[in-house]
Amino acid sequence: MANEVTLLDFWPSPFGMRARIALSLKGIEYEYKEENLLEKSPLLLKMNPVHKKIPVLIHNGKSICESLIMVQYIDEVWNDKSPLLPKDPYARAVARFWADFVDKKVYVSGKRIRITKGEEQEAAKKEFIESLKLLENELGDMPYFGGEILGYLDVVLVPFYSWFYTYETYGKFKAECPKLVAWAKRCMENESVSKSLPEQERVYGFDLKLKKVYGIE
Ligand SMILES: N[C@@H](CCC(=O)N[C@@H](CS)C(=O)NCC(=O)O)C(=O)O
């Protein structure tokens, strides 16, 4: 079967970064289409009519939406190289549990750090740091969440590393998570990760502009 793959994406998106890393780890050639989220393309609206969000993976004309599902799809379709999800059903369930946690806690509290102030921002910072500590504990002494090799949860979490500087600058704090920082740097040694993640300062510059567009002080 021919494999025509397109990714609708937007460079600072941590969700898009997940797809980029997974496709690169699997060695898949694809067309990258950068979306303007202030003026979404007809293709994006057609391919993700429910949420109208990036990333969208288009594989032989069919769309796959939601980055956690997308990375699992990529792993299942291109299963001959760089396995991401563990084979054992329990270990798979655990990896999916933490991936869901990343979206519900790390992403949500990180966003609240960016867009709130005062008490609300303090609460968000607390939740963000607590979430990182829980993840650090889950990592334990393993090099990756996937064990000896980079796996599903690594792909899901590492994009937020490119947003750390933004969170810490807005929140005026330094997350003391040495093991997690060492893990992120280890992930960045992998070319599929480093080429998929933008520089932290570039993300911060983008977010400053975004806040102006939305009138957030
Ligand atoms: N849960 C989704 C989140 C995707 C998402 O929030 N995408 C943002 C960019 S980071 C977007 O397209 N925003 C445009 C909008 O909400 O109109 C996923 O994992 O793919």
UniProtKB/TrEMBL annotation:
Residues 88-206 form the GST C-terminal domain. The keyword Protein biosynthesis does not apply. Its EC number is 2.5.1.18. It is an enzyme of class 2 (transferase). Keywords: Transferase. Residues 3-82 form the GST N-terminal domain. One of its GO terms (cellular component) is cytoplasm. One of its GO terms (biological process) is glutathione metabolic process. It catalyses: RX + glutathione = an S-substituted glutathione + a halide anion + H(+). It holds the Pfam family GST_N. It comes from the Eukaryota. GO terms for molecular function: glutathione transferase activity. CDD domains: GST_C_Tau, GST_N_Tau. Belongs to the GST superfamily. PANTHER family: GLUTATHIONE S-TRANSFERASE U19, GLUTATHIONE S-TRANSFERASE, GST, SUPERFAMILY, GST DOMAIN CONTAINING. This is glutathione transferase. It comes from Coptis chinensis.
